[in-house]
Design goal:
This protein is of the alpha+beta class. The protein is built from eleven helices and ten strands. The structure holds flavin-adenine dinucleotide.
Length: 390
């Protein structure tokens, strides 16, 4: 890979906009990706296996809690730095990318809504890689419609008793703790006048917690994605996160930042697909190339538009005035760009496009998932419209 001072060459025209700290994190991500062989990258996808060792190595490099202050073990970087890491990891299909994104997504509510005891218990060990975190929102009958959450919690003495199933949980079969959104009932089990959706921190060793079916998916493989099941799961009273009834606020606040992370990943996929297309086209004859310039120019435009919106959304997070609508726009633009660039690049590369060495078919499969998770692009479009129409 050609680079400028350890930095990816395709970002050369952006470097003057990055701080030294942002460049440092980008160089770290590039070096981390350099150390992983293509064979390893392909294996985590074909064998659908999670690389805990890579997760721990990433945490040792300071990537496990990059955008959190050092008070709880974080690296004190800004969100744009974390975006640059995600973009580089996705471009190279680094096997730990998605779990790292979700891990940071889960620390956000603990950092923002947790009490001091919870912060001390979960954040330093998340930063150093002892704990891996996962996010439990989606249920078999509650995806886009979070109001339909059917997992219940009921206070009984010093414990909450949780019952229900969460599905499509990234890192689910490998995580040590979970941020779980559950419907808090009254103590007699009734719903009427109950606080409603409430967040809990559930550890994998709590009684009544089980891993359900594991998924063998089209894309985003190698991330231990599975169902998690609560059967009279006993959660200490101290593990409620935020106030009773604050669950949607806790979840949506984290997802607003998480969507910027997804936008970064998708920008990386789009760039990775473009890299592959350029490789194939560069190797073709001059006459053939002339006809392809128009198409390639359009793909570059898609990648750079996704990148511009993603960096803008990250800067909005860093300003402290996180703009949810901007995050939604970046997520849509970047994941749609990734899907489009990967599709066109496969067409351009013809039969080579399906060879696993180019990572193009892998990016094509992963990009499809990007359009769906952390809020489908259809729902994000509706949120954007509603923000203007309200
Ligand atoms: C790879 C992967 C990883 C994931 N990881 C996690 C995770 O870690 N934690 C977690 O909690 N969840 C996770 N998810 C779940 C993901 O967030 C949901 O799949 C997503 O929110 C959509 O929910 P759903 O699948 O139930 O689809 P549905 O909500 O049933 O939607 C189906 C289709 O209908 C459309 N639709 C739905 N409602 C409307 C409407 N009102 N108007 C117009 N169109 C509508 C949607 O856009 C979609 O196209 C993951 C999913 C994938 C694919």
């Amino acid at each position: 890979m050609s680079k400028t001072d350890g930095l990816p060459a395709h970002l050369a025209k952006h470097l003057s906009l990055f701080s030294n700290d942002q460049k440092k994190w980008l160089a770290k991500a590039a070096a981390f990706a350099d150390a992983i062989s293509l064979e390893e990258t392909k294996r985590s996808d074909t064998e659908n296996t999670f690389r805990r060792d890579l997760f721990e190595a990433a945490c040792k490099d300071g990537l496990g809690a990059l955008p959190f202050p050092s008070t709880y073990g974080g690296s004190g970087g800004d969100y744009l730095s974390f975006v640059l890491v995600n973009e580089e990891f996705a471009r190279r299909c680094v096997p730990v990318m998605s779990s790292l994104g979700v891990h940071v997504l889960c620390q956000e509510p603990v950092y923002k809504h947790g009490n001091e005891e919870q912060k001390q218990r979960y954040l330093p060990n998340s930063a150093n890689g002892k704990y891996l975190a996962a996010f439990g929102l989606t249920e078999p009958n509650a995806g886009s419609d979070t109001a339909a959450i059917a997992t219940t919690a009921k206070l009984s003495g010093d414990e909450y008793i949780l019952n229900g199933t969460k599905t499509f949980i990234t890192s689910g079969a490998s995580a040590d703790y979970f941020i779980v959104m559950s419907r808090l009932l009254n103590e007699d089990g009734s719903k009427e006048g109950s606080p409603g959706i409430t967040a809990f921190i559930v550890e994998k060793d709590f009684k009544g917690f089980e891993i359900g079916q594991k998924f063998d998916m089209l894309g985003m493989r190698g991330y231990s994605t599975c169902e998690i099941v609560f059967s009279d799961c006993r959660v200490p009273k101290a593990n409620i996160l935020g106030a009773p009834g604050d669950g949607r606020k806790v979840a949506l606040g984290s997802l607003a930042k998480g969507r910027v992370t997804i936008a970064a990943q998708a920008t990386g996929w789009a760039q990775g697909a473009l890299d592959a297309a350029l490789k194939v086209v560069s190797a073709s004859g001059a006459a053939e190339r002339g006809q392809l310039d128009y198409l390639i120019g359009g793909l570059v435009l898609l990648v750079e538009s996704a990148r511009a919106l993603t960096y803008q959304a990250a800067r909005s997070v860093d300003s402290g005035e996180s703009d949810v609508t901007l995050a939604a726009m970046a997520k849509i633009q970047a994941t749609d760009a990734a899907m489009k660039v990967a599709t066109e690049a496969i067409s351009l590369a013809q039969e080579r496009g399906l060879e696993s060495d180019l990572l193009l078919e892998r990016i094509f499969r992963d990009a499809k998932a990007g359009q769906i998770y952390e809020g489908t692009n259809q729902i994000q479009r509706m949120l954007i419209a509603r923000s203007l129409l309200k």
